[in-house]
Amino acid sequence: MIALLPWLLVLVLGVAVMVLAIKLRRTEEQVAPLEQRYEQTSAELQHYRSLLQHVMESLQDAVMLVTAEGVITSANPAAIRLLGEGLLGRTLLQRTLCYDLNLLLTRCVQTQRPQHAELQISHPQTRTVFVRILPLPTAPDAAESTYLVVLTDISELRRLEQIRSDFVANVSHELRTPLASIRANAEALLESPPDDPAIQQRFLNTIVHQTERLTRMTEDLLVLAKAEARPVPQVQKVKLHSVLRPLLDQVRPQAEEAKVSLNVDVPADFTICAQRDHLEQILWNLIDNAIKYNRPGGQVFVRAVKHPDSSEIIIEDTGIGIPHEHLERVFERFYRVDKARSRARGGTGLGLSIVKHLVEAHGGRVWVESEMNVGSRFGVVFPDTCPQPKESNSAS
Ligand SMILES: Nc1ncnc2c1ncn2[C@@H]1O[C@H](COP(=O)(O)OP(=O)(O)O)[C@@H](O)[C@H]1O
Ligand SMILES: [Mg+2]
Question: What residues have CB less than 8 Å from 67, skipping those under 6 apart?
Answer without folding.
Answer: 73, 144, 145, 146, 147
